[in-house]
């Protein structure tokens, strides 16, 4: 199979879909790999390194989209890229379609077969292709929030760890999954006063056992959520419903009862965000203020630590890419129910139920698609 990897063009996105090492593995299995020139510059991977791995360097993304059977990316294709997709082509990347009707329409119109990293499952119901980026984003959320809390950045002027004689900052983490767990680890490590909220008693037990007295846990009902959010200096939104839009847990009304200069970091922004006042931002302009509350809603947080993120991502995406290239997408999906869960769009039809339900499309089952 001819596999293509274009350079990412989303604002301040430095990751790349294939590392030189991943390209070498694909080539070793008899595939052609086409890499757009300078695609790996953000992780210090040179064109020469890709050539040494057996890949072909091409000058423009047009060549890749026109000639390659499978496109491997990191972020969702931008409008200019979606216009180049075609029928019988495989797109393998993060998509996050539920809050993005425009992208969904464009993918349907293109006829492409789109497999989304974020809905590929694991044997215990986990999301292994999302996990490494969730780990990165969870850890970065506290880093970003701590910076936004500085007075010069519009925040309250609070140091999360405090100093002797001064109380530490309060951090509320909404969601105890992968993002929330990693955010809590970072916040606890800084010495902050951390509260983790979740609706799953087993998750609360797990994080409570891990953190012991270093962090508090609370069941996430309306009263506890309001109490934690209005007292916090930093609120991390770490809620995920696989493939679906995130629920709006922090309302505009709550902002009026929060402390002026408090910070909201919405890690769920890829899925529409879990704060009512969230809107996607970029690394170029990461924050905005509503009702004296600083919002950090960067939709590609891991892109800022591109090298770490790219290698962590390739570790989990490459095995499926190899399988698709070797077997073709239909046989690969038939052979692996977990990879099959990643199919979101095929020949103009939505094939992931949560996306179909959210955007009002008819759902087409995998069994129907595979015949």
Automatic annotation (TrEMBL):
Domain annotation Alanine dehydrogenase/pyridine nucleotide transhydrogenase NAD(H)-binding: ranges: 149-297
User: One Pfam family of this protein, by short name?
Assistant: AlaDh_PNT_C
Q: What SUPFAM superfamilies is this protein classified in?
A: Formate/glycerate dehydrogenase catalytic domain-like, NAD(P)-binding Rossmann-fold domains
Keyword field: NAD, Oxidoreductase
- EC numbers for this chain: 1.4.1.1
Q: Where does the signal peptide begin and end?
A: none
Catalysis performed (reactions) = L-alanine + NAD(+) + H2O = pyruvate + NH4(+) + NADH + H(+)
Q: Where is the Alanine dehydrogenase/pyridine nucleotide transhydrogenase N-terminal domain?
A: 4-137
Key word Acetylation present in the record? no
Organism's domain of life? Answer: Bacteria
Q: Which family does it belong to?
A: Belongs to the AlaDH/PNT family.
* Annotated protein name in UniProt: Alanine dehydrogenase
Give the species this sequence originates from: Blastomonas marina
């Amino acid at each position: 199979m001819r596999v293509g990897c274009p350079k990412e063009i989303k604002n301040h996105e430095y990751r790349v879909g294939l590392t030189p090492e991943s390209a070498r593995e694909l080539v070793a299995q008899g595939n052609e790999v086409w890499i757009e020139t300078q695609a790996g510059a953000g992780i210090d991977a040179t064109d020469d390194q890709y050539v040494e791995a057996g890949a072909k360097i091409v000058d423009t993304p047009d060549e890749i989209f026109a000639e390659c059977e499978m496109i491997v990316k990191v972020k969702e294709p931008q409008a200019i890229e979606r216009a180049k997709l075609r029928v019988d082509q495989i797109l393998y990347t993060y998509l996050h379609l539920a809050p993005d009707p425009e992208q969904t329409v464009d993918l349907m119109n293109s006829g492409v077969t789109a497999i989304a990293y974020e809905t590929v499952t694991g044997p215990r119901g986990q999301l292994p292709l999302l996990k490494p980026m969730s780990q990165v984003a969870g850890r970065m959320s506290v880093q970003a929030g701590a910076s936004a809390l500085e007075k010069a950045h519009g925040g309250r002027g609070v140091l999360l760890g405090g100093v002797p004689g001064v109380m530490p900052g309060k951090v509320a983490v909404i969601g105890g999954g992968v993002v929330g767990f990693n955010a809590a680890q970072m916040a606890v490590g800084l010495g902050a006063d951390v509260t983790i909220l979740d609706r799953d008693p087993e998750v609360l037990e797990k994080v409570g056992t891990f953190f012991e007295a270093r962090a508090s846990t609370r069941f996430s009902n309306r009263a506890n959520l309001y109490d934690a959010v209005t007292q916090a200096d930093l609120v991390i939104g770490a809620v995920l419903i696989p493939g679906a839009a995130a629920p709006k847990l922090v309302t505009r009304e709550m902002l009026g009862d929060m402390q002026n200069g408090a910070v909201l970091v919405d890690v769920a922004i890829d899925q529409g965000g879990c704060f009512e006042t969230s809107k996607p931002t970029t690394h170029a302009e990461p924050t905005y203020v509503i009702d004296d509350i600083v919002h950090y809603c960067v939709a590609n947080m891991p892109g800022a630590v591109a090298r770490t993120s790219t290698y962590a991502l390739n570790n989990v995406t490459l095995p499926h890419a190899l399988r698709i290239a070797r077997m073709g997408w239909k046989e690969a999906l038939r052979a692996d129910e977990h990879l099959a869960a990643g199919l979101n769009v095929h020949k103009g039809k939505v094939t992931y139920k949560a996306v179909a339900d959210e955007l009002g499309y008819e759902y087409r089952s995998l069994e129907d698609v595979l015949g």
